[in-house]
Amino acid sequence: MSTLPTWTIILIVLLLASYVVGVSYIGKRGAPYSKTMAGFATARGKVSPWLVGASFAATFASANLYLGLPGLAYQYGISVLWYTLGSFGTAWIGLLLFAKTFWKYQKEKGGVSTLPEWLGKRYNSKTLQILVSILLLFNIYYIVGQNVGLATIFETIIGIPYEWGVVAGVMITIIYIGLGGAFAQIITDAFQGILMSVTSVLIIVSLFWTIGGGFQVFDRMFDQLAAIHPSLVSTFSAEGPYDSVPTVLAIQFLMISFVLMPHLLNKILAIETEKELRPFVISSGVHLFFISYLPVFGGFAARILVPGLAEADQALPAYLIEAFPPALVALMIVGVISAVLSSTDSLYLSITSSIGNDIYLPLVQKTQSRLTPANYDQRAVIIAKSSLIVVGAASLYLSINRPESLAMLIQFSFSAIISGVFGPVLLGYFWNKGNRTGAIVSVLTGSLSYLAFTQFNLLPNLYIALFVSSALGFISMLAASYLATAFGPKVRMAGKHSA
């Protein structure tokens, strides 16, 4: 589909090659910090909080906001703004609500490396820690979404076959995460976040010459969308995912709870002192605004300027080719690729850190008591790094057959996790009567009900299914905690903490 001259495609390939060399160098620089489990998983105190904030925003964005959402905008029009507005507004509110308490509690417990470990210590339960870490394996579908997004870019712009694009994306990410762990991931994501913010601003600026109309550019854009089809400017998309007020409310719930995703909360664990939380939150908010809200307008413009695309997820790359000179397109395409890689590396790190820290470590501590803590930790790091190969291979296998909708695949994967952890994490902040029995019941109820709603088509709208299953998980934790305390043997309670 690419209409770029050959020299521009060569320039993109050279920039990508330089990018791979650069991130591999950063990975090597991070190697000394990734020799322990805590260093591999968080790189706590090794990176500026301003960069950690940019990394948070870049990780939040992913292929969903840079490819999936513009693709949905191309299909369904302005109703998709309900999602993008929530991505900045309610998501940042969620970060403001959760960041300080989450950080303070892990500090009181001597530091933790992952969300499952945080929950395990909060409810004094290794079983819960292992259960949540198993739930995190749903993130592999999230990685598949990123692989598909990256391969779509390679196929659309450079002409690389889809399958080879998937292989390239998996190989690039595994190399530098395996070398440098969280240090490499945060530094590269921070660079990617800054590049994505610049690209997002350029997308909006370009509307003035592609759509025209001066300061009335948005009115003109919406008029042209209405001329194509009135549904494209409807407040709700009757045939799309944003079809009603309940759905919109569920989306806002999704955005505020999305901050609870393990690969995002791990960024908070990289902060060393309470004083550093403020620049981290400010940096996250600034970059979130640019990255989450602006790219979707490229999808609207693509519907006007590049109709008839074979795949809706090609909308943003197709618009960039239409709107910018070839040399600038090359730089911006690297920015879009950055959006994909910034989430992929965080997801790999989250899954593999949890395999080493939350599955292997608790089990080996019970079965091999003769080892020293240092031996346990070294083995956990080896397991975490080795599992990169396995997780990468699994995501590669699942990515070969392109899914129907990139955005919907990603939505399914993280909703299954959120519905399970929402009750234990939220009540872990504000309710000291929650116990291990309630937390375990909540994880099982929330995640299994979400799978039942979606797989048996009981609630076909993924957003509504997330809200209902999370509510069931929340209620079941309240009920199970009370019942376990009232009728069962005395449950060891988690200690009080500031909320």
From TrEMBL:
The chain crosses the membrane at residues 6-26, 47-68, 80-99, 127-144, 164-187, 194-215, 245-265, 286-306, 318-341, 380-400, 406-431, 438-456, 462-484. It catalyses: L-proline(in) + Na(+)(in) = L-proline(out) + Na(+)(out). Pfam families: SSF. The keyword Protein biosynthesis does not apply. CDD domains: SLC5sbd. Keywords: Cell membrane, Ion transport, Membrane, Sodium, Sodium transport, Symport, Transmembrane, Transmembrane helix, Transport. It comes from the Bacteria. It is a multi-pass membrane protein. The keyword Mitochondrion does not apply. It is found in: Cell membrane. Gene3D superfamilies: Sodium/glucose cotransporter. PANTHER family: SODIUM/PROLINE SYMPORTER-RELATED, SODIUM_PROLINE SYMPORTER. Belongs to the sodium:solute symporter (SSF) (TC 2.A.21) family. This is Sodium:solute symporter family protein.
